[in-house]
Amino acid sequence: MSDTLPSIGELLTATVPMVRTLNLEYVETTPERAVLRLPDQPDYHNHIGGPHAGAMFTLAESASGAIVLAAFGDQLSRAVPLAVRSEIAFKKVAKGVVTATATLGRPIGEVVAQLDAGERPEFPVEVAITREDGAVSGEMHIVWTLRPNS
Q1: Pfam family of this protein, just one (predicted)?
Q2: pLDDT band, residue 3 (cuts 50/70/90)
């Protein structure tokens, strides 16, 4: 981004209160990959001392939103990105810092071509949530759409 335009992380931190509440850190945000980190914060722990499931969901959903904005930000004048549905699986106990890495499940050009054809495209985003030791502690599958502006 330029010196005058905020980064996607800065934009989302400024406009999404939950991002600020959880102190999410934007490590990387590109159209190919978004990486966010949730610091270890006792106020957001669960009953076993790891990050609460709601905090992990918010981390993963925020990573998916960051990649959607990176990939389709140039389409915002004609469409609104919206999450359609999601599913999260908790695989292993997480403790400490957790990181969410999001990847798009369809090529950007394919999604934009559907939008160009007057359709409302849907596309998946896959998110892996990892612990500091690299083990996958959770996975999210989230489907997004670009709803054309009326």
Answers
A1: DUF4442
A2: low
